[in-house]
UniProtKB/TrEMBL annotation, chains A, B, C:
<comment type="similarity">
    <text>Belongs to the enoyl-CoA hydratase/isomerase family.</text>
</comment>
<dbReference type="InterPro" id="IPR051053">
    <property type="entry name" value="ECH/Chromodomain_protein"/>
</dbReference>
<dbReference type="InterPro" id="IPR029045">
    <property type="entry name" value="ClpP/crotonase-like_dom_sf"/>
</dbReference>
<protein>
    <submittedName>
        <fullName>Peroxisomal enoyl-CoA-hydratase</fullName>
    </submittedName>
</protein>
<dbReference type="InterPro" id="IPR001753">
    <property type="entry name" value="Enoyl-CoA_hydra/iso"/>
</dbReference>
<dbReference type="InterPro" id="IPR014748">
    <property type="entry name" value="Enoyl-CoA_hydra_C"/>
</dbReference>
<dbReference type="Pfam" id="PF00378">
    <property type="entry name" value="ECH_1"/>
</dbReference>
Length: 304, 304, 304
């Protein structure tokens, strides 16, 4: 990774997002309340950029995405005021139908590949990409008990997008994923169809972000940035069998166990105190990471 | 798909099943109450045929499998009055042990590969293939709260069949699947081992089919046949990574978003009315579908 | 499998474990209460050996791992009195960082590849490898309701090991696995994050092993050893698609349905009596089993 100036998150000058760094936690607020926090191309580009910045910035340990609790919705889906046509990009149109890249999926991949802990704090209603790209790629989801939640795709003549057919069954199993994705039903967070998706369900909209922030602050203070990156990598790319996973976690264990963070983990345990981990991804990540390869989805010719 | 006469489901002349089309919903009733609705070769062939018909018939949007609520069981497993020998086919016997094709699995694959929504309405006890092939490949399962449910295989000296070792862990996770498949225990639908398998649990046998039918009618009226087929395809063949899934759902999104069903999805949303989707699989499915390849399991030489 | 003397489990002379065969059930007791049942190299070698013995010994049908209910913990993790350095092996150190083999993972694989039913009876607190290698590879987990359970890895500067990033999401889904592995939180067995991991939760420490033993005795008496081995193999190596699984379970069905255990399964069912299965793995397993291949993880050059 090349040298770069540290971003001043407040000064990013985004139009669709408000962003701030507090301690080691970046909070991103969707800032389109007048448009019911719909998902548009401005938000797409800004979300991808800010998650890539957070991934690279060693000061950041946790990233939270949330909305104003007074907004009409956390995210009410794609802006389809002009039909689905708003989603097409002229350049890809020339290449052919295989060249289209779903913007929800681009955001999902940016979040999923962020090596820091990620939290969605869903303090309002959510639909469409507000359920998929804005929730499923995160490590944890906090939600308001009163939120109306819906994956309406089959009722809109389109498909569940933003990597949701891959992510949702992994998160909660195919039985519950079917009950959500193939019905387009509107459910509440306590529904047995969806409750396993949520780390915590809060009674009021106003409590969602503070609960997520307190959780984030505690994790930021007491977890190793490098250990988190390896754990996330192993969960996303565990190998194709138990044996392959054993080879992978053995190597990761050797690398981390021999590191300063590993030593601090033992020492703080013996001294019965909270740890203070010195290592960072920018300075202390082995060249072995990442151990997996991914198709280059940005190239128009990428096919399956 | 070549031209074909539309089937008259009531006139199929089946011996083990009663079949009828009502609106866009096909209901299949297992008609062997005197034999406790056991699974025999007649039912196998009729089930495979009717699910293949439903897959191809553009009039059909949802398929329900159920039993008479007065029957002794929804399906009490394979007919083993003559031992497991009833399962062997002379032709395969000559080829060798690799040539056998489990009939429960043939039914499972026919249901799993049906591109319409599928529902099992389990209004009685179920055992063996009555739990596997007759439940697991469906998109949704409605069940009677009083049903006695059992996967007895390890207590019968045989293996869980009908693709169940693949399907059940995907549906509810390996922890619960172990508690069912490796014990052969009899459980009720509200047991924590199995409850996540069911979309809805009904207090009486008589309520199961009507609940499933009302659910089916609503989905048939308000979902896109093509969108459902793509969503089911993506859930069954999501690609091997998040990146591959992104390439797949992007292409599906482009195809559907540019279709008449996609346009109707936007229009009905804007006009705050229920949608009326015009497209059908027979006339409007892209040649890109299916994007996956499957081994030809009907060929005796198919091996792994 | 070559001929071997039958082990006398009580006479194995282990230092870290007590082992006994009662009927067809082997019970292994972790015997390091003075060291809070920490995981050390002695236990590692003895666990691997005893699970390999149980796998091969036809008398054994179920294996239970437990602790003294009066011990301070079921297993409080690795012995890190000397830091993580205790984990490194000089021979692997010379080879390079890729040659390290995590001892927790070696134990996990020995348990996972044991073809008999396996049960962890967790009658005390558990942390680290006490949660991973000592719980996740088992078929069933019984637990004391008051147990404090924690996967502390990211708070210790290391990674979740012992194949846990592969096993835990498979068992209970990625949403709950994230809530455990990426937080390092301490939870109780009734927490929604972890309860699906457990087959049974018992009110007192003293009830855990007896409940597991009664469960084991019943399964040992009434299940087929060969059918269990095939069912476990199919769950661990189900093939890469529904079609592949159909080919695999068809072949297994043909083999078992034609076996003496298959015949006894039918006969006992017809005669409404409990079965008595004669076949054993040592004498009656087809050469087709195992149908999968695994990397040789013991070789230092094994890489991915």
């Amino acid at each position: 990774m090349h040298k770069m100036a540290l971003p001043d998150y407040r000064a990013l000058g985004y139009k669709g997002l408000l962003v701030a760094l507090d301690g080691a936690v970046v909070t991103i607020i969707i800032n389109r309340a007048k448009q019911r926090n719909t998902f548009d191309n401005t938000i797409v580009n800004e979300l991808i950029e800010v998650f890539e910045l957070c991934d690279r910035d060693d000061r950041v340990r946790v990233v939270i995405l949330t909305a104003e609790p007074t907004a009409p919705a956390y995210c009410s889906g794609a802006d389809i005021s002009g039909g689905w046509n708003l989603l097409w990009v002229p350049e890809a149109e020339k290449e052919g139908e295989h060249a289209h890249r779903d913007t929800g999926g681009q955001v999902s991949l940016a979040i999923l590949n962020c090596r820091k802990l990620t939290i969605a704090a869903i303090n309002g209603h959510a639909a469409g990409v507000g359920m998929t790209g804005m929730q499923l790629p995160f490590d944890f989801r906090f939600v308001w008990e009163g939120a109306k939640l819906t994956f309406p795709f089959v009722r809109r003549g389109i498909v569940p997008e933003a990597v949701s057919t891959y992510l949702l069954p992994r998160l909660i199993g195919h039985s519950r994923a079917n009950s959500l994705l193939l019905t387009g039903a509107t459910v509440s967070p306590t529904s047995p169809y969806i409750r396993d998706l949520y780390h915590q369900i809060l009674p009021t909209r106003e409590e969602v972000y503070p609960a997520a922030k307190a959780f984030a602050d505690e994790l930021a203070a007491n977890t190793s940035q490098v250990a988190v990156a390896y754990a996330k990598g192993l969960l996303l790319h565990p190998g194709e069998s138990a044996e392959e996973n054993h080879l992978l976690d053995s190597r990761a264990m050797k690398l981390l166990g021999s590191s300063r963070d590993g030593a601090e983990g033992v020492l703080s345990f013996k001294e019965r105190r909270l740890p203070k981990f010195p290592d960072t991804l920018g300075k202390n990540l082995s060249s072995w990471y990442p151990w997996w390869r991914s198709p280059n989805v940005k190239h128009c010719q990428s096919k399956l």
